[in-house]
Amino acid sequence: MLVEARFQGPDGSGNGGWSAGIFAALIDDRGPVEVTLRRPPPLETPLTAADGEVRDPDGQLIAQVRRVEPVEAVVPPVDRATAADAARAYPGLLDHPFPRCFVCGPAHPDGLRIFPGRLPDGRTAAPFRAPAEVTPATVWAALDCPGGWAVLAPGRPYVLGRIAAQVTALPRPGDECVVTGLAVGGEGRKAEVHTSLYGADGALLGRARATWVALATA
Hints:
Elements: H1 16-24, E1 33-37, E2 48-50, E3 53-55, E4 61-67, H2 80-88, E5 117-118, E6 124-129, H3 136-142, H4 145-148, E7 158-167, E8 176-187, E9 190-198, E10 204-214
Helix pairs in contact: 1-3
């Protein structure tokens, strides 16, 4: 088990959604499965897995994986034109805590380039063109950052702490999809968010609920 360098999120570690999708395969990468990240997933590091736990070569716990009840949370869709309009105001284009993030980083040379902008009702939305190679981890990744950007703000970076996802179907390479996100609660440094991915025909392809954790700032 390996998180390749191109799937990075925060500098020096794996994108949370992609990593969680890889780890979910211990049970079922289409879910419903919940992955709790205990440490930032290291890049280009052989990881071992047993009994629902992922550990690094030093034995440190990286993630815990467990089966959960079906994920019922769904964020309503928008049409692709509305999502594209929202993406033009994506705040990460000007101020991004992790600009080389595989999912939402504008500086990543071959990332997914999902740029979620805020809608008037508080949801985030972004268009998403499925890449040439699509796996369940691709859907997990797409369901990651659009939720985070429902709570991210300048000077207030968050990282994924836990995500439970359910993949109904995979988009076909090149499909023009839409992803939506919504903050639904939180307390202290934790924020609870939901995300949904819709295919080119409007069908729900995947859904997730997640906990994001604000990083301590100086």
